[in-house]
Amino acid sequence: MIRPNQPEKDPDMQPRTLAELADHVGGRVVGDGGRTITAAATLENAGPGQITFLSNAKYASLVNKTRAAAVVVKNEMSSPAALLVVGDPY
User: Which residues have a Cβ under 8 Å from the Cβ of 87 and sit 6 or more positions away?
Assistant: First the structure.
């Protein structure tokens, strides 16, 4: 079980670098494309090695607080995490 405060690897997800994911979805990396992604989680609960996404602007403030390795977004923005910029993050 994945607990919100204890990020774990998703047993069904093969680890991929952010650059590999960007190539797969036709996105663009802003930041470290070499970060290894092992699971996905919400903006609030994501931790190291996890990817999350922002599709609703009302949650944009959470991007600066996330501990995720990467955030999937529509537009480039300030973030402590690397970004995967795509046409539709949802």
Answer: 26, 74
Tally of CB atoms within 10 A around 45: 17
Q: What DSSP assignment string belongs to 27-81? A: -EEES-TT-EE-EE--TTT--TTEEEE--SGGGGGGGGT---SEEEESS----SS
pTM (two decimals)? 0.85
What domains sit in the chain, N to C, each tagged with a CATH number? 16-85 (3.40.1390.10)
Distance CA 43, CA 62 (A): 6
Cβ count near 84 (within 10 Å): 24
What pLDDT tens digit does each residue of the chain (90 aa) get?
344 554 555 567 799 999 999 999 999 999 999 999 999 999 999 999 999 999 999 999 999 999 999 999 999 999 999 999 999 998
